[in-house]
């Protein structure tokens, strides 16, 4: 489904009567494939409680809960016996960080950094914009702008809070901005103008109705006065061109993954996605777990060629399994204020398990279903974004506050894996950066949001003014 | 210079300063007055154009007066000001997006439906509060931690509107079929038989425009609908087509 083709076809279909000039929209015809998945680990996912964990320093764990694989700079924390309310409710889904590390360490990198805000919404946005290093564009917007012109919905955002925002670049074309999806299980309805509506007219009648509407509109005083309005132009473009393309591909059927009301769908002549079995195998709690639903939709969006940038995040609410076990902590990673180790341990498990399942699917899915093009995973980056770290020690209360010092996790075949960019001072449990020329750890340096942004962009073959350069961190021939 | 001289010089300087300030104030006030007179004159021209322009379709359906547009200085524009037509109303430069709650209320009022009768996907999921909340400009801060609304209509806003209007029109048609001669909205079209005659179709069109878009159709719009009615459609199909075409037009989503 190529944007350029349906733009042209759409204009011909409507005879150009109501469609804004095709030249008024920036057409990016780059057909190269690049995919970005942003996992917004909301609330402060601490790297020293996961892949830079240690038996020393203020943030130390006991040696029996730390695992350190051979031939890797990483370490990880095994599942702890977490609970909410002093044992009242078990906390954690049991997924081990070790499982993730064993599978993906060669494609993992930790980028140590010290952020610039401890306010959730501000820090969340800066983790996406690199603190405005690229004219305020978020990473998702930049990747969509560079590689998303070929997709109908290049940039999808299912996250919340400070991660569900647009960037600050007023010149960014609207089509590269994120489309927010509140409920992934309902997304399918947004892809067809009339399928599944009660007593739907035939397609031919609907086309007549739409033509009537267009003819009425073009004569109306409203249209004559406001046809040059950007909002009106965008609206018409989306209605007359984008929507038609979604309908043509019968995208709706591919995305119906709502298991809860299967019988109701049948009454409206709708059927669930043909990929339902594979989806349910990967995400068995899809119907009740928002992040599983988001991750499932993320996979379907890229698989079906609609999108190349997706942002997902764990729910800020409690997700209960069987009514007895909490898979997530309330307020996600920010539950650390109350129970630091419980929140970090459970939320890292929850987040990493979803990422694990996503990678499995991406590895087994060829781009455009063409084995010659390789798997989607080979052209992907998963960026685990988070606002900040947490206090390195939790005396007495067991809770921790926000802390600027942290590190971010990247998983991708496009970057140099099994690596820590920077290092950890085990005495203080604080991370520090690296010399930008040599790549060697340097205690006098702390990397910032803009540095990480620069690296991810470069891994995607994107350059922009004032970009920081770390060529030794990118795999050659990416 | 002796003290007396200094005193007189000071008086002179103060007096000069005051007179200069007053002069500037007076001239700026004059400019404001001239400007408002010009605006009043322009308004008069626009309202006078109503008589020669196509204006509303039906001269038998007087346009509601809107005295709130009278200007303080327009003492001469009493009668014309009262007959302000849609051309003046749409002379605003800024468009506002009619978001989910306003849209829902408009449709409930326009099609005489309860809020929960307008649209539910597969008969279960609320279109406005769940399925299309973001697309229609809303946000859910408590359950979904959405703290911001979309600034402008999104890519999927038009699809959302189409589905909602189709659903709402169908709901109204079903109700009016049961009400028969007491139909509330489709009172000029027989929903269980052939399409209406020309005069009934005109009345129905005017009625739908008033209910959904709060105005009368202009001549070109009425002509378009009459031409459309030449298609082989039953009364019910025609009713749905009109309801959809008028209800999902771009005009309904902006104010």
What structural class should be given to the helix and strand makeup of chain A? alpha/beta
By oligomeric state, this entry counts as heterodimer
SS-derived structural category of chain B: mainly alpha
Strand composition percent of chain A: 5-15%
Number of helices of chain B: 10
Question: Would you write up a description of this structure?
Answer:
The complex is a heterodimer of chains A (478) and B (255). Chain A is of the alpha/beta class and 478 residues long. Chain A contains 13 helices and 18 strands. Chain A has an 8-stranded mixed β-sheet with strand order 8-7-9-1-12-15-6-16, with helices on both faces. In chain A, helix 1 packs across helix 7 and helix 11 runs parallel beside helix 12. Chain A is globular and about 75 Å long. Chain B has 255 residues and is an all-alpha fold. Chain B is built from 10 helices and 2 strands. Chain B has a two-stranded antiparallel sheet. In chain B, strand 1 and strand 2 form a beta hairpin. The radius of gyration of chain B is 28 Å and the shape is elongated. The chains are: A alpha/beta (478), B mainly alpha (255). At the A-B interface, strand 8, helix 5, helix 6, helix 7 and helix 9 of A face helix 7, helix 9 and helix 10 of B.
List keywords for this structure.
heterodimer; A: 478 residues; alpha/beta; 8-stranded mixed sheet; 13 helices; 18 strands; B: 255 residues; mainly alpha; two-stranded antiparallel sheet; 55% helix; 2% strand
